Amino acid sequence: MRHTQQVVYLDDGELATVRAHEFYTSTLEARRTDKVPTTVDLTSEDYELGGYADYMRKEIHEQPDAVRRALLGRLDDRFATARLGGIEVTARDVHSIRRVTFLGCGSAYYAGQMGAALVEELARIPADAEPASEFRYRNPVVDPHTLFVAVSQSGETADTLAAVAELKRKGGRVAGAVNVVGSSIGRACGNGIFLHAGPEVAVASTKAFTNMAVSFAMLGLLFGRVRDLSVADGRRIVAGLRALPGQIAEILAGEEAIAEVALRYAGAQHMFFLGRVRGWSVAREGAQKLKEISYVHAEAYQASELKHGPLALIDQSMPTVTIVPGDELLAKHVATIEEVRARGGPVVAVTNADLPSGLADAVIKVPCNEPELNPILLTVPLQLFAYHTAQKLGRDIDKPRNLAKSVTVE
Ligand code: AGP
Questions:
Q1: Least enclosed by CB within 10 Å: which of 14, 36, 373, 391?
Q2: Whole-model pTM above 0.85?
């Protein structure tokens, strides 16, 4: 075998002495710690491009399988709930949780925001998300009845790790949601949800984001079924989760049409991404993807805030991508599109609804799932939109300027 599969994770202040036929671990004071190696079940193929030109597109296309892995063995038909082995809470504990707060940076923060909406809707527990990078600087109130969830693909983001340390120092309850087994955040939390996205190499997070959202839907389902989510609603969500991989594959099969829309607007200097309620975290993640790999200035706004300021920026040079879930707010979304177009702004609608013909300049249609889960599907075309814009502009997609995959410094 060309590559090692046995690893030992060192804690802070621990060191390893490695000789030709043995190793041992100890503290800086030379006390032995006797760490046992862990087997990593990844192969070198997991890190190969496998015919793709870059990792980002490969990872976008791996999403149906990644979601399948995240769901594997975690859906319980008998009680219409989810089983998350890493979340160490009893039903009684779930009743004692008065708030769930997701902490993460960048896309992990936006995934946390999507997670907060899912937990609040499914479990009716107040939930929010906050950038982990700010957390320790504002003397946060750490309530013992709040469950904090530290979200990180790499599990090594310094700001998120520092937020976990601050939480633990204050006696907070924290669970991790990480993609890399044995990572610092996973170990610091000691319990949590493993994301099962597989290795993510491109700087822009895609499959890890999706698996974060899917995992938080399962967390919401689990907590909801302990609280007041009915069996019928539990079954609806279980079926919706099972439908996701196939529906994501359907979106990916429409890549060419999404690429055409991206090319049409690739010359824009600035873009707006609008969403409201369920679409708000989608808009934020869409803008994040576009700006980080294409360097086009992209700003996400809550559609309802448009007329309170940013509407002044709308003209024919400012395309707007609107997220339009076909939910009870559809009429509001339609009104937003009309407002933007009345000011000459081109509109791309990303939707699962049948919009009146001619309402938007371009429509990217996605399949329909349950209202709570639709944000997960609405995010996928935005990854392809960003990807094809960046490709048209000749950017280094996997390694955008000034960014690192894992931000291990403050
Ligand atoms: C995502 O596309 C970005 N590269 C970035 O925002 C990233 O999500 C953030 O740095 C957090 O990384 P983590 O998930 O590894 O903690």
A1: 36
A2: yes
